Amino acid sequence: MPAYKPVTHVIFDMDGLLLDTERLYTVAISELTEEYGKAYPWELKVQCMGMKGDASAKLIIDSLELPLTVPEYLEKIDLKYKELFPQAVLLPDTVGPHLAIHQSLLAEYGQTCTWYDLIQVMGHTALETAQEICRLKSVPVDPEIYQDKVAALQFSMFPKIGLMRAHILICDITLACCATGAERLVRHLHKHGVPIAIASGSSQTSFDLKTTSHRELMKLFNPVVLSSSDPEVKAGKPAPDVFLVCAGRFPDKPHSSKVRKKV
After folding, report:
1. What is the pLDDT of residues 100-113, one digit of tens each?
2. Which residues make beta-bridge pairs with 163?
3. Do 31 and 57 lie in a common domain?
4. Across-strand partners of 10?
5. pTM: predicted TM-score of the whole model, two decimal places
6. What is the pLDDT of residues 67-96, one digit of tens each?
7. Which of 20, 53, 72, 131 has its CA at 20 to 30 Å from residue 61's CA atom?
8. Within-domain flag for 115
């Protein structure tokens, strides 16, 4: 097992990491663009992720040739956000169920799966995961067959399963019966005295809407830096500005060598 360095500070993104809001963004923007006969494609959504509100608005307007100015677009989309964002829920713990699935399958071949094994394949596509697990555990089965077995167990274990564009099977947050993994991690870090913060591309208004049902949990974060409302953040993501500003506002600042650009 590798020797891990102590965690001194943690900066969280919010959308799609702490809160299941990416789905809500997609619904809101799709509804707006459909009013003008335009679809909101995945490729454009990926480009908009993490951008400041006005920059995202301009990109969508220009890409889809919408007959709107940036202020007009923002006014319309804010109305939709006000309706949808209070529904935001914390992301669940899907790692435990995935570990149980691989343990069950590998037991058929006299093998087991540990947390460390799962870490090696986190973020991989479903097929890449199957290929690596079969290689690591010398499983005498075609990776595509192993992948199909994993998918079958996922469909039976989770009330509903979705397939992302990257071909990674994930649990549908709205119907998942798993424990809330995001909250568990946040409370674990807070309990052990690790300073935690949020660095988000959101505005203060949208942050307040998204966290309507999570006020108590949000009090554990200090600082909270919102690039769409914070004048000190000059450039939105993927630039590292929001993370660097956030790191500089910790009451107990981390050493500068530990602050790295988010990949």
Report:
1. 889 999 999 999 98
2. 169
3. yes
4. 196
5. 0.63
6. 999 999 999 999 999 999 998 888 765 666
7. 20
8. yes
